Amino acid sequence: MKNILTIWGGAEQGKSATIKNLIPLFETNFPKAKVNWLIKGYDIKLIIEIEGKKIGVESQGDPNSRLKSSITDFAKDDNCDLIICASRTRGETVKIIKDVAKEYNYNLTWATNYRSSTNQSTLNQMSAEHIFQLILTLI
Question: For the whole model, what pTM was predicted?
Fold first, then answer.
């Protein structure tokens, strides 16, 4: 079964940072992984190929962002087995993800990162490590 794993939460809560922290975990745990960077900067977009599985990653999950085009491309054109993306908790971004999942027959998994008014960077790293374990069950 194909899956969309969404890291969701309010604005400025570390969702994108958590997603970016996943990439070194993939590289360390799967040193033969092929990483195709589509966008590398403040927000990232890439496809990782691991042992015959394609994983599309989009860290931009704000309303009016490239989220819709990215996850549609991952599902339709790239035939990704797993899509990892950021999303708000309601509204446009949630609708986009649900619509793509329905249209391309993806299971939805919703997760969130740990949050605090202090030490957010450390919590984002811890979140990434725990979410990575979840990813291993999905691929």
Answer: 0.92
